[in-house]
Amino acid sequence: MKELSRAFAAALLKHLRPIDISLGIKVLSGSPLKPRPSLHELIEPKARLFWLAALTSYAQGQSHSGLYLDASSSLADVLDSSDQDLTDADISLLDLLGSGDALCQEFPTVVVTAENLESKPEASFVYRSDSQLIYLQRWYRMEAMLGAFVRDRLRRPPRALPESFFEVFQDFIAPEGLAENPWQAAACFAALRHDFSIITGGPGTGKTTTVTRLIGLLMSLPVGMRPESIQMVAPTGKAAERMRESFNGNLNAMLAALPEHRRQPIVEQKDRVLHPASTIHSFLGSQGNRGFRQHAGNPVSCDVLIVDESSMIDLELFIALLDALPQECHLILLGDKNQLAAVGTGNVFTDLTGTCDAIYGNLNVNSMAFSTAFEALSTCTLPSFEDAEALCGDHVVELTKSYRFTGKSEVGQLARILLDEGRLPHAGELEVPLTDLGADWRGRLKQSLAAYKTVLLEGTDASVLLEVIGQVRVLCAVRGGEYGVEAINDLLGEFVLGRGVAMEQPQNGLPFIIRSNDKNLGLANGDCGVFRVNEGGDLLAYLPAAELGGEPRSYTPYALPNWDPAFALTIHKSQGSEYDSVVVVLPEMKRQFLSWELVYTAITRGKRHVSLILPDALIGQHLPRVQRRSGLREELLVDYK
Q1: Closest Cα partner for 51 from 75, 74, 72?
Q2: What CATH number belongs to 410-618?
Q3: pLDDT digit string (tens) for 305-328?
Q4: What pLDDT is recorded for position 490?
Q5: What's the CATH fold of domain 160-404?
Q6: Which intervals hold domain AAA+ ATPase (predicted)?
């Protein structure tokens, strides 16, 4: 342990949460109730256990699975601090703690290698040498469980499809488009062939269309191979609602296009076999702090589980979901690997898809056996590698063709620059409007709500207000500060509703977003609506119709669960939603908080138009990718070492 100063120890403590410090005290002294060690005690060599525990807890609180023992980064970098007492010391984690192997040797009852955990189950920390991570034992076990689940599914032999299925497959996959874009059909084939598959793709690439065809194919398998229960889930109420709406529309379109002899078996089965999309928590029977009703000892009844918006699911919820699945349940994960990671610990979906990149540098890589079988069924040839196997290609398919964004669209242009070059556009490079924060950016924001203000003043009914406010949304990177969602909601509220209106109370014309699920009212976290005075003079809360073409739902405002004003939303809250146009506000902030994924998620919420309001210093700048430390890729690559 490198010699520390008291000033350094004091500066380090300022960055830790009370829960981090409590764990450090518990590991060092045996009880979290003991007083915090003095600064003098914290610079002694034996204090390494305190710092190990506190910093591992801190890393987990920052959504990492464990603490990365990196010799190249100073603690000032690890803590994202400009504190002079930290920067001047230039001490790395290895300087402070020592290597993982040294920790295991010096504190064998507290820190244990992953290989020795089962012989020392009382150890608080686990060291994984291949990823140089120190874990709290609970998080290591969850990551190892996930890795074991996936490896088990990858080792299972592929399902053989009968030769008679050729004509069925042809009827569902629209073969005329296969030469140009075979990946939707390949995704269906992968999911039919394996008990575990992943479909990733950006907005408009046809994930829901692909899943709809897949469900049709599953229900068209020979009797005895057909699933008896197909369940769709999503991590949030809003995402589940959008999944239901999108799937129902695609299902009706598919049924209308199918010949009668293909359509009729699906019509006869769908009400019995297909279950409406729900949240994962509802599917598992959430009991709040008491966990879930469904678990390994009481698994769900499900033959096929389709999980949408999988990138939003953290490690803990993934484990709860997998723990409740029957051994033979067929699992299909949908998501966009480029979107924001889950708010909680881990980056599971990106790690799962990234394993393929780690081996081959490509997601759409197939084994010869997969390509040969697919060609026999579809008459289409896929690129393949003789040694490609496991998670690559055969289980993961990336949909790359966007049917929403053309090369000339604002959103498509901006997304392409971000994807290809990892940067924001230069001024004049694209047709995307860029507004400098030094210019009249507030006027630009007000302009985006001008149409809404007009229809509100004209006295139009709630259905029109819902339609207009749903066409455009202001998205912010942060909640607080001058450029955060709270201040911008105040600004736009004053513009639309007038000065001095209290937006914490229901107001005529005020858009809102629901913050929690309410099953009794049929409301989900993330649902958006508007308060409007009806013809009888009553102020009601209106939300879009539950069914396409129906009337808006109305509620007494004070019956609603918690809600926030919603002229502007955080980018995180907008995940899973779509708008015709988005105005994205990127503030002057530390660039490590302004990630590539955050901006990509924001701009791809827009279907037709996007404009950026940002500081001049950000124009043309490359954006950092989110770095979530985990050992999941190493866990999945065990079979290839």
Answers
A1: 75
A2: 3.40.50.300
A3: 999 999 999 999 999 999 999 999
A4: 93
A5: Rossmann fold (3.40.50)
A6: 193-364
